[in-house]
Structure formats: C-alpha cells, structure tokens
Amino acid sequence: MDQIDRVLKNKVIEASGCTEPIAVAYACANAAKLIKSRPTSVELELSANVIKNAMIVCLPGTHGKYGIKLAAAMGALYGNADKGLNVIAGFTTEQIEESEKFSKNVCIKAVSGVPPLYIKAKIKTEDGNESVVEVSHYHTFITRKELNGTVLDSATATEQKKVEVNFGIKDIFDYVDGGKGDMEFVDKIIDVNGCMSDEGLTKDYGLRLGKAIIEHDKAYELLGKLDYILERTTAAVDARMAGADLPVMSNSGSGNQGLIATVPVMAAAEALNVGKELERKCVLLSSLIAIYIKSKHDVLSAYCGAAIAGTGVAAALTYMMGGNESHVRMAIQNSLGNTFGVLCDGAKETCSLKVANCTFSAVYSAFLALKGNSPKMKEGVICPEAEGTIENIASLGKKTSGFLDKALMEIMLG
C-alpha cells in the first residue's frame, strides 16, 4: 500500500455524529471498558476546542438532544469502545433516556496548556473502582490508561495513529490523474456520504437549508446547477448537525469536512453526467487536497474547516470540467483567498450556512481557474504558488487560534 493510499484511509474514516462529542463518548466508553461494574460518576477535563465543538451539536439518533454530559453518559453506560467513532451509533430510546438521567453525574472542567484536542475521562463506580482514559491529538488516539491509580499500557487506538503527509499537490494530481487509488474505498465514501445527504432531504433537520433550496429554487435560478450542488451538500450537514443516526466518511478528524469534500463533487458529477470513473477521480482529488492542506494545521482550530474542505472541492470541480494541474492550482488559490479566515464558533446547526458559502466559493473558484484567473502575485496571505499560500494560512492559524479560542470561550460560556 503506497503512502498516499495509507494516508487517505487513515484520515477518511467512518464516524457517526459530530466528531468532538463522539470523541468524548469514545474516551468514556474506553474508561468504562476497564472496569466491570456500573459507573456512578464521570469527571471530564477538556480542551477549549473540544468544549466549543461539543457543546450544542445534536447527538446521532437522539432526536435533537445534545450536550457534552449526554455524550459522556452515553459512552460510559452503553458505548461500544471497539467501534471507534461509531461508539454511540444505534442506541435504543431506553438507552438514551437512561443516559439522560445519568448525565447529572457528569462534571466538566476546561483545562489549558494541553493539545487543541484533549479529553481526559475519569470514571468512578459504586464498588470503589476508578479508571482514567486520556485521548489527545487525534479523536481516537488514546495516550494514557489508568485503573485504580496504576498506569496501564498506553496502547493507542489503531484508527488514528499519526501518519505523516509527505506528499504535495503534484503528487496528488499525478496519483489521481494516473488512475491510481482504491476505487472501492472511494465508492464507500460516495455511498456513505450520499446517504447522509439523502437523509437531510427527506426529513426536517436543523436549519433545513438543503430542503429550502428545493422549495424556493426561484431565488437560485441564476446559479444554474449550483442550486443542486448546494442542496445536496447543505442537506447532508443539516442532517449530521441535527443528530441523524447515520455515519459519514470523515476527513482529517471532521465529519463535516468529509461531507464538504465529497458531496458537492458527487452532486456536480451527477448534474454534469460525467460518468463514474471521473466522479471517483474527482472525489479522490478533493479528499486528498483537503488532507494535504489540513495536515499543515492543528487538528482543531479557531478557524472553520469548511474553507479547507471547500478548497478540495474547487480543485476537483476544476479537474472535472477539463482543467489541468495548472488550473487546479489556480482553483486552490482562488478558494483559499476567498474563504480563509471564517471563524469556528462550535459545531452546530448553523454550520450548514458556512458550508453553503464555501461550496458556493468552490464552484466559482473553479470557473475562474478554468478562465485562467487567480492571484498572480503576493496578496495578503496569498503567494504566487499554492504551496506558499497553504503554509502562510497554516502559520497564521497556529499563531492566532489560541487567543481567538479564548475570546470565543468567554462569549460561549459567559
């Protein structure tokens, strides 16, 4: 298995629900797995980014219920630690109700001086046992286990061990253009994420942005096929943020980024009737560009990841419409120049609005690129070459996320 394929399958994994509350549930499920008796309390220590993204986003299958305490309770009482980011998929009504009752026994503490993604779950039982599991850096990356004060082997979860991204845009383009890649895996991405989009169009989830585009299509008639692309993409995010009990193929630790990187490409391929082979190549290109850009950033950030995933879409749509590597690079420049800087104020229903903006930007970034239009000189964070732009944006994100997150937390917790 070559490196690009290995990185793709490490970063694009199936996940049920928003990945931060699910990671909390995962930590609690693993802590509960260390002890046999029923938990009586859960103590959580969480980084600001985890709190921000887990506070008010709905949990899958709960019919609109949300909260860090509920996620922790579901993981501690009934979570299946062996299912990774599907740890709380398929809960019964009774299990959810019991978890709600138990959630009053969960306490949360915000901690600083830890990685952007940090979760420490301590579980106590009625017979006096105590277990601790620490997850950091990646959503299923267990860095510490304790049972009654004894440190156990810190064997990490197999799903998200650190994999270095040692390839660039040209490598990605040549890989996709050369017909490489596991297309059965790409088909899984298409199928799983397509189901979430279908779900968002059949029921009234969240802001109903996807359904509203169908119902009020006159407002979008000048956008041509963009209305269908927006409809499919925002419907998927509506459903996911409102707790639809379906998995998605996440990208770089984010389910929404996984949806954004793929659903617009799938919708465009259908609208343009380009055929399955080109659709697969474009989904692969979008996913890998998103992984490449995100690899330069911290796992969690003060900035919205839709801009990164949308840049992958811009590259893929450009390729879909006949663009070459030079055009793809222009699309990356156009997209990042437009959408970078959007703040992430937590995972929630209004994520679909930001997703719509980034999807809209991706389409027009592709159109501009195909006309040969993109920044030709250094403009703000934009460099003449896409790689330089990506490095600048990553550097800015790392330097500014700390105080931005602090300010956001003061507002969100105030």
Distance between the termini: 49 Å
CATH level 1 name of the largest domain: Mainly Alpha
Would you give the CATH topology of the largest domain? 2-methylcitrate dehydratase PrpD
Number of domains: 2
CATH superfamily of the largest domain: 2-methylcitrate dehydratase PrpD
Strand content: 5-15%
What is the share of helical residues? 40-55%
Q: Strand arrangement, largest sheet?
A: 3-2-4-5-6-7
Task: Give the overall shape.
Answer: globular
Segments where pLDDT lies below 50 for 5+ residues? 217-222
- How would you classify the helix and strand content by structural class? alpha+beta
Number of strands: 8
Radius of gyration: 21 Å
List SSEs in N-to-C order.
HEHEHHHEEEEEHHHHEHHHHHH
Counted by DSSP, the helix tally is 15
Q: What's the CATH architecture name of the largest domain? A: Orthogonal Bundle
